[in-house]
């Protein structure tokens, strides 16, 4: 792995973070604008930012795709997506101002004329809407197209703006499919854009509850003293989804759950949960701490005992019969792609030595929930009779990332009555009850940071590469060891995953 080179612009980072965070003159170009992500997340996020007054009046949105659309057709698609998916109420005047800055460029990624037209469109927008030459290029396209698009941007002088304007590249996950492909991709991108203008998206970092991990740990005194191997028995990080793969067969088959979310979202959650306190929250310092802990992550020696992969079979969910993975449209009936993965990791440092981190994810599980559970050791000595405490589990602190955002602390309490009986109770913090402010969508936050040039919430190339380095041996092991174990849709995954924890004398939480 290469050393940590500066990927921030010091002038930009000197901005006072308490000033209102409003983007300056700028525009966004989306490649792959007809895709799901664009319609469900990016377009609504642009509108929501505009509605909240966080975009400049001349903000411009350019779509680039193969469809034979005029600007008005594109604007209509954005309109429908905003109406359907935006978080904030629809306001005609906000929409009108935004729609005036919408342009569509028709073409394929290898089409030189299309990129020449894109350049013309950007120059026009600079004149008409005062975008100042500042444009971000959002690559919401399959990874195999990243190099072509990036090289085209360079070839058509789009990767550098006039004067002191900026040009940025935004890259959606998956960033490669293993270490070698990620390194190659990083080389291609860094060849065209300076490191501080490359924004790799991991939308989990834009979630309010994920940012709160740092607040919980480092703005308080009561948790951190316990946050180590002397008190913590193990940590469980769960990202469970009840949905199947929907219309994403083309993307998902051959990728699977571990590459889809463990390599990025779950390892980022692990890094934030396990890292040391950064001396400040600037991007360079944060990444240094995250990398230190990712570098200390190790896989156990026997991957057959400490990893599990599964694939959903037909079952029932929400009262409806749902198809198994192999019956989904577009899936190879002999596919061995994992839709469930569980991996045990160790962190070899003074704070965490001997404390397992269990990561699991899956589609078509019991319900949609993402949480980080820090499970504490039992009291070293109990003065109570074992019969009094038989219903007492281990103390736990659970960061509920979604959907019921908050934090739960589980501990033992005396059951009211004449006997000494102790049972688990919970103490809850719920965002909805404590705050009147609603949380912005992750993409809203990330798009604003992108336009402001704030790289804090975007993984660096070293983190991405290190995460692949952690996962690659698991994928290699799976590729040469049979098939994923089937599990019935609507359940909590394959039995082998329960066995994996049982062998360690533990069990998965049922969130
Ligand atoms: C994406 C994965 O990164 O995250 C999807 O590619 C997954 O497979 C999605 O469904 C889940 O995101 P969220 O924000 O709904 O938890």
From TrEMBL:
Residue stretches making up the Glucose-6-phosphate dehydrogenase NAD-binding domain: 29-212
Alphabetical list of PROSITE patterns matching this protein: G6P_DEHYDROGENASE
Keywords of this entry: Carbohydrate metabolism, Glucose metabolism, NADP, Oxidoreductase
Catalytic residues in the record: 265
Catalytic activity: D-glucose 6-phosphate + NADP(+) = 6-phospho-D-glucono-1,5-lactone + NADPH + H(+)
Gene3D superfamilies: Dihydrodipicolinate Reductase, domain 2 (3.30.360.10), NAD(P)-binding Rossmann-like Domain (3.40.50.720)
Chain's role: Catalyzes the oxidation of glucose 6-phosphate to 6-phosphogluconolactone.
Protein name as annotated: Glucose-6-phosphate 1-dehydrogenase
Species of the source: Streptomyces chisholmiae
